[in-house]
Amino acid sequence: MTKTLGLIGTGMIGGTLARLAVAAGLNVVLSNSRGPETLADLVTELGGQARAATPAAAAEAGDLVVATVPLHAYEQLPAAALAGKIVIDTMNYYPERDGRIAELDSDELTSSALVQRHLAGSRLVKAFNNIDFHRLSTSARPAGAADRSALPIAGDDPAAKAEVIALLDALGYDAVDTGSLADSWRVEPGTPVYVQPYFPGQTPEGVGQDEAFRWFFETPGVPVPAAQVKELIDSAVRGVAGGKLLPGA
How many domains does the chain divide into? Predict the structure, then answer.
């Protein structure tokens, strides 16, 4: 059973997962590339269940560890400290931010398979990559709720996936197993299950940036149950790797 969640990266997705974890009664160990002292405000907000550390220390402390850094920084993940750990990969490939990555552009690897190659001693599970941070926060519901949403996961280790499914349940979500890391392209940017289903409509056209951000933060999510997530995953067709970086993604 997960008692402590380690986080490497505390941006929008990482911070949201930390808040959900604390609300679920878990301890969290936060880290980023800038040093534990830069996380003082977030630790204060989260209270006694949270502390800040280096990425290696967060990796060692976590029963499960979330890697939520920009994909171009994946090689900075502490492979030695993460050896033997279940690592949750929330990362997506955005060429405008990450630069072109040949193995991804050629479909030789999915982004998660690329990260798994770096973290050869870890058991990687793809999760939390297809929903923006605001809907991730506001759409969480207790088990059995009629309006509970589901999120896809992918991984090569069934036991690791079972642990992540239990974490999703604790944080407020059902899970849909997409398959292996090689299959995780089905939930990457540009696929039917990526971000948009959790919104009630498209971003308004012809509005300024301020209005667009206001819409983003004021628009509630809509429930996306497991059956709908599975249909969207099954309908995916592999296209050009990578996607456009969206607010909150």
Answer: 1
